[in-house]
Amino acid sequence: METNETKGMHETGEIQESAGTKGGKLLTKRDITKSWLLWYLACEVSNSFERLQSIAFCICMGPILKKLYPDKEDYCAALTRHLQFFNTQGIWGGIVHGITIALEEERAKGAKDITDETITGIKTGLMGPFAGIGDTIDFATVLPIILAFFIPIAQDGNWIAGVLPITIFTIITGVEGYSFWHLGYKAGTASATQILQAGWIKQLILGASVLGLFMMGGLSASLVKVSTSLKITAGGMNLVVQDILDQILPGLLPLLTVGGAYLFLTLPRKSGKKVSFIVLVVAILIIGLVLGALGILG
Amino acid sequence: METGITLFQAVLIGLIYGLSGIGALYGFMCGLGFSTLTWALLVGLVMGDVPGAMVIGASLQLMYLGIIAPGGNAPQDPTVATLVSTTLVLATGAPLETAVALAIPLGLLGAQLLILIRTVNIVWVHMADRYAAKGNIKGIYLAGLLYPTLFKLPLRWIPVTLATYFGPTYIELLLDMMPEAVINGLTVVGGMMPAVGFAMVVSVIGRRNLLPFFAAGFFFIIYSGITTMALAIAGLILAYLTIMFTNRNKSEVA
Searching chain A, which residue's CA lies closest to the CA of residue B120? Predict the structure, then answer.
């Protein structure tokens, strides 16, 4: 994948310079936005194991290819070209679509050196890196932070917690998606390399991680509820174990539970595989049921 | 509170799951796919108990908080888990904690259903190939939007309607058989399960050298008991400071 990426970028870097002198755009801003809307609509509808988001990619390119290739044969070939395997994160991955549109436009204007392989190479080379960034920022960080913020409100039975998180997330990803699509089209392949190597993305992820970890820590403290009901009778004195624990370090048991779950998920094991979500959930189910039934926790 | 479920309510819950699976409107639908809070709200509206549904939605959200779907393959389907378990708990008056235990197998079944759908979707890709060769963009629209939807809608709608309509009888049987100790155990599980969601999020976003920020947040709340908004503001300031100081270090080195 990486060789494709670098090869593709190198080629188009030269192409764009040579084509830039010809000037004149065949596509309007409206065409680009319409293409984004089609993608936003179709992206996950037809996702299949064979070629994942391929039909959605073809659909969003449809009107653009129609405009670029008046000759029917070229048009059919272009449609087929964009039915190939494709999979990315639908928001940040939009940069790839923008670049692809720009490449198709250059090609339609007569840039002979943009071949099928160039376009497919760039698509498959860039879709992975941007999917990684998009998944990390949008789905692993932004969404959990927003949802976690509203959980205490939902615990009070308030309906607004069912409406606001998804509204906020839709607005954020909508603005991102629209911007990246246009950015990819305007700036072309060079911008993709810049973005992937840019410091600000790393800073953004760092900042989001700090915010996310701090929020998760704070919310763990108020939402993970583990306490022991053990009592020790010694020398005629009743000692409540939880009281003793609270005097040493309040929140010790919840912190141990989250820490234990984290270690369970992340510690490498002999088989080399990580523990899955399901295994962790079932483990907690069993531990909680047993310790609860025995009267140790609760 | 009135319990039980009518056929009409079960049909509506099934329809919600059917529509949720269409997958159109990317950011909105993919976000919803992880948002049990919203699905719980919809169940609450159908079943006439929004506050109860939101409380269940919150406990499920805590469990599913860090779940992500790299490459679109999630190990669980939080949507069906929330829709069915919330409905069953509201319809039977079962303890809220049972929702968490019910959600796991349901979510796993939902994930299998998604695998079936993705496999069948291969058919439409080959159909689209033929349309593309003829330059028939309308055909590609149909293969990419309409046909998958027509297949998915009943496949998701009908089982959920059946499960929510006939499920309560079995749940009530189960609850009658359940000893007191198990109910206690479930309460403990309900308190512990949020640890899963937090551990998942931390394992994805937390580089090891950043983990002290988790501890900072934890003890900040333990000792101050401050509100979530205050926590968020403190977190934003911390994030800003971290970015600023790491930036400065770099420019000094350079």
Answer: A48
